[in-house]
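Appendix B, example 12.
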Amino acid sequence: MRRFVTSVLAAGVALVIMLVAQSGRRAIAADESSLLQIDNEFVQAAAKDDKAAVGKLLDSDFTWTDADGKTRTRTDVLKSLPTPALGNETGAQLKPRTYSQVGAVMSSRDKIHILRIWAKRPAGWRLLVYHEVALGQQAAAAAGPGVSDCQNPCKTVPFKPKTEAEQAIIVSWQALETGVTNHNASAWSPHIAEEFVMLGSTNDHPLSKADRIATLNLQKQTGHGSAPAPLVSAQMFDFGDAVVMTSLHQPYSGKPVHVSRLWIKRDGHWIMSISYQTTIQAAPAKTS
């Protein structure tokens, strides 16, 4: 009898777990559906130069970074709407992701990639970040000076965290950048989501977590310097278990870079999920 009761209880627990999982999947699917719907509304309105329609969808902290690295505020955009790099995005590949109060839509066609990060506000989804990257637009700059020179961002950054989440993200970021500097994939990997993707003006294709690990291992073998570009300034937008980070970096040589990152809290740890990096073409280049 006791064995029968135990079996029934086990089956009941398994059923509850299955129902919770199914409910979670339905919620994610519903979020992605509503996200894609409003994202398409924005794309079509922007392609038609409909400022009124676009304005209704923009967050108050919205920024638009084009493929040349020029960043505009919401006010700038509504005065003169930039031309979207992919137009109305006919034939573009769309990859949506939702993380609780944040949604990301990655759109691409050929070498042009666009990241749109949406925030779930009381009034609904609002667009916080629009970021274009043209892959291979600029040749990679010379490598950084090496392990011993990574003070910023590995040990110190010109950014003062305002919340516990921001502080934890800085700690995670410094740890992963120290791993990059030391060519230590094992130290870098725990701070990166499995679905991680990185795109930049100096890359010729999107980089996955596996790609970055392979690069770090190769750099370890060759001794190739890989100190990350120092941070100049940053902003963070906290949405609970997801934080959007926009920042400006100045490589040791070459032009500055505007970066949009998405951090997520998973199993109690902050990890990076998305990184889009665009070189600012109009800025002067730093010589090493």
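DSSP finds six helices and twelve strands in the chain. The first strand starts at residue 58 and ends at 65.
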